[in-house]
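Q: Hi! New to this. If I give you a protein sequence and the SMILES for flavin mononucleotide, can you show me the bound structure?
A: Yes, paste them in.
Q: Okay, here:
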Amino acid sequence: MIFPGAIIDTPNFFVGSVPIFGELILAPMDGFTDSPFRILCRQLGSAMSYTEFVNVDEVAFSRNPESSANLKLRFSERERPIAFQIYGHLEDRLVETARRLQDRGPDIIDINLGCSIRKIAERGAGAGMLKDPAKIGRLFAKLSAQLKIPVSAKIRLGWDERRRNYLEVARALEENGCRLIAVHARTKDQAFAGPVDWDAIAEIKQRVRIPVLGNGNVRTVADIDVMKRQTGCDGVMIGRAAIGHPWIFSRKDKEQVPVEECVRMARRHLELMIELYGPRLGPVIFRKDAVRYVHHWIGVGEYRNRLVRCSSADEYDAVFSEISSEPRMRPENLRPNSSVDSTPIG
Ligand SMILES: Cc1cc2nc3c(=O)[nH]c(=O)nc-3n(C[C@H](O)[C@H](O)[C@H](O)COP(=O)(O)O)c2cc1C
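A: Thanks. Here is the predicted structure of the protein with flavin mononucleotide bound:
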């Protein structure tokens, strides 16, 4: 399989037979990493794409091509290699859904073993499955036997501080045909706050031979390098720090991107949103993204309030034009910071 970059570069690693060119990867984030945002991140250097997580039951029962589950699974060729991420608590339902989803052309099927949302985890899906490594083993044995494409997993360190069973989970995954593990270095109980344990990523990396992606609290270019050095991971997965700042995948920090460039990117993002969701819904869904492109600019407060009320491309255009010509704009100086807790979004 040939992907952009393949002709001159050597792959950083492989997911099964799928070569990955690059070491920075956009994390799946429900409500943010739809196809428009993934295209932008991929163009700026994210080495592969993951869809937002999709509930297996929603896929099974959704015949409407415009349903939320089906929109989440829509992708452009420019995003490849692309992993469809699914979650559920029933092994056979997961396997059957994965088998059917292969026909839609993803390169990889990823199983979410990290979601901490209570109604999902307590039902035994997402991070809920971490409590049962034997079930994870059975699931991956079936997936790897029945799928033609590689299967991967995104995990956390365990259910809570007392049950940090990440090594057992990583072993069950590798022994049963999983081809890539992405590790969010927190437990389910920590959700999105509290210290991340990058040393646990290093431990996993030392124990398995399949590629490992490190994830959790990477906010700056300096953080990327610290995580790589500290863990030896094959790739660094970046979530919240990429929202409104896809340039992180080009190894640029926020203060290195001029306001005009932020506005240009926001306009491009809006165009892609309108292509996917249409002229009525696209601008409304884009509100949460629009504010993130400019939120670190001092003097942007009044514009932010206007951006969250925009309902059309023309309305955004008017606000963006004013922002571009606003003399007070200057970036806050963001300190590299891998040790401080992050604030969850959404
Ligand atoms: C709004 C939001 C939605 C998320 N949705 C998903 C998801 O659909 N699938 C998944 O595996 N992780 C999801 N995550 C977790 C992220 O992929 C990532 O593991 C987490 O944010 C830590 O990385 P970060 O510190 O770089 O943001 C989500 C996180 C956030 C903040």
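A: DSSP finds 13 helices and 13 strands in the chain. Let me know if you'd like me to explain how to read the tokens.
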